[in-house]
# Entry
Amino acid sequence: MTIIVTGGAGFIDCRKPHPGMLLSARDYLHSLTYAGNLSTLAPVMDQPNFRFVKLDICDRPGVYTLFEEEKPDVIVLDPMLATGGSAIDAIGIIKRSHPKSIKFMCIIAAPEGMKAFTEAHPDVPVYCAAMDERLNDHGYIVPGLGDAGDRIFGTL
# Structure
């Protein structure tokens, strides 16, 4: 299996990537912008199964080239699947890079988003921890988590 890890080289509040993940990674993709710190990868840089790729995840041609070379298994992680729109678009973009496989994982979903996602991408397995009741008039999951980013980073 090919694992491509994005971010994590000191990104946001990550002081050091998990060594087990890095030792199993073939490619470690990071643009080294916005708090990137290459020194956090020093312990694994000489490993034969490890390659650091300086590339911005938003550089679609670059990412497509990397995916063509490596044919990774892709796991897309998103805390919430509400309407499904962002996840549907993200998977569509990823499919154009021809990965070996794609899986989608979320913590919580609304039935409307799950239905839209599975209709748009019936070939992509979905792993979801909890299905909430519905979406409200604003497209928010009810009862939901509130703002997942605020909850994760404690900025409420």
About this structure: Confidence is low (pLDDT under 50) at residues 7-25. Strands lie at 4-6, 27-30, 51-54, 73-81, 101-109, 126-131, 134-135, 141-142. The first strand starts at residue 4 and ends at 6. The CA atoms of residues 13 and 35 lie 9 Å apart.
